[in-house]
Amino acid sequence: DSGVTQTPKHLITATGQRVTLRCSPRSGDLSVYWYQQSLDQGLQFLIQYYNGEERAKGNILERFSAQQFPDLHSELNLSSLELGDSALYFCASSATHYNEQFFGPGTRLTVL
Amino acid sequence: AQSVTQLDSQVPVFEEAPVELRCNYSSSVSVYLFWYVQYPNQGLQLLLKYLSGSTLVKGINGFEAEFNKSQTSFHLRKPSVHISDTAEYFCAVTSTGGGNKLTFGTGTQLKVEL
């Protein structure tokens, strides 16, 4: 158990819908990262927050957004969902913005 | 920009045999290197990391990796595998300059057979 929690574990929804994925980092970690794992794209970095502020952005679609709250938990919002958004979404956390990352168990999103 | 190449998508090996999973990286700046393992239906677990210092890095579960700067490689090895090592292994890189986003390879599926 890495100490990073993600909810929900599974999410099934329809095209065009909007969902919110939630992540709680390890106690004391200030940095949160979001990654997408899909069969065709592999593991891709989406976005990073550090102590509430956006730190780095990767291959994140405009339909996706994230934020980190004062209690340091983070949410990833996915809107206007398409079939191709079906994937495993991982959250990771680290103590600062340059330490090793610890991954949560992931949220499996299925878009029908 | 960095990239990671894991040439072997699948590696079958018999139990108690040695194994090497290959990883090559490309970067114009200094890097930190990592190996993660993913068991079925689970998240990623850090096996080992190279930040600086000794080029031979020891990790959990008896795994080790050697950083070779001239060959831009970071191969993962284990002298004797167990059936429980069956999993997907990912090599990852991040630059030392900050930001900390991980760039992953495509993964190597290690299948240990009796």
Please, could you describe this protein's structure?
The complex is a heterodimer of chains A (112) and B (114). Chain A has 112 residues and is mainly β. In chain A, 0% of the residues lie in helices and 54% in strands. Chain A has strands spanning 5-7, 10-13, 19-24, 31-38, 42-50, 53-57, 64-68, 74-78, 87-94, 102-103, 107-111. In chain A, the strands form two sheets. In chain A, strands 2, 4, 5, 6, 9, 10 and 11 form a seven-stranded mixed sheet that branches. In chain A, strands 1-3-8-7 form a four-stranded antiparallel sheet, with no helix packed on it. In chain A, strand 7 and strand 8 form a beta hairpin. The radius of gyration of chain A is 13 Å and the shape is globular. Chain A starts with a strand and ends with a strand. The model of chain A has no long low-confidence stretch (mean pLDDT 94). Chain B is mainly beta. Chain B is built from no helices and twelve strands. In chain B, strands 2, 5, 6, 10, 11 and 12 form a six-stranded mixed sheet that branches. Chain B has a four-stranded antiparallel sheet with strand order 3-9-8-7, with no helix packed on it. In chain B, 37% of the residues are buried. The interface between A and B is medium-sized, with 26 and 19 residues.
